[in-house]
Amino acid sequence: xxxxxxxxxxxxxxxxxxxxxxxxxxxxxxxxxxxxxxxxxxxxxxxxxxxxxxxxxxxxxxxxxxxxxxxxxxxxxxxxxxxxxxxxxxxxxxxxxxxxxxxxxxxxxxxxxxxxxxxxxxxxxxxxxxxxxxxxxxxxxxxxxxxxxxxxxxxxxxxxxxxxxxxxxxxxxxxxxxxxxxxxxxxxxxxxxxxxxxxxxxxxxxxxxxxxxxxxxxxxxxxxxxxxxxxxxxxxxxx
Length: 239
What we know:
It contains eight helices and eleven strands. It has helices at about 10-25, 40-50, 80-90, 110-120, 180, 200-205, 210-220, 230, and strands spanning about 1-5, 30-35, 60-65, 70, 125, 130, 135, 160-165, 175, 190, 225-230. β8 and β9 (about 175) form a beta hairpin. α1 (about 10-25) packs across α2 (about 40-50) and α6 (about 200-205) runs parallel beside α7 (about 210-220).
């Protein structure tokens, strides 16, 4: 695991954008498959990406999927797809055929099945599972990631690429990427900012498998952590 700590959330977002662009530039003839999470920090990144890195990004070589999605319409402010479309994809005129949204406002169970089948059809396979080049994960204050909350750890061992999860605090249903995709990804990148995430980042970097995010960090094939100093807490002095 490698960690990259920056002073502010904005600096962290800039660094991650450059990291992803550089990754694609190193293999200029290849298509890259990305899965993005939602949340406040990715939203900051999407806005910066559209306004400052539009011309530097090989959009035509990106295929965009989602790690998780709330079961709401696209126009809802909580829609991960809707947010990314508004802040980034529409701004750079990303072709629709390169973007694969989760239609989570239909039957969640049927959509989890449909989206699982879609990633099987459209991604390269490794050991029988679809393989993303990068899965961008966040982490909640409670240690959840990919809408897999504490108490739902069985989803980390699921052989179905996507399953229905739920937010235990408000009962909202979600579609969540499960362990079979997370642990097959070439690269897992955690993007975590803010003082409220300090305990979670400490668990990710140092502690045992204390929650879904920490478990993924300690068991995935290749993990990088991008965090700001507030999220890193005392770790900012030592990393």
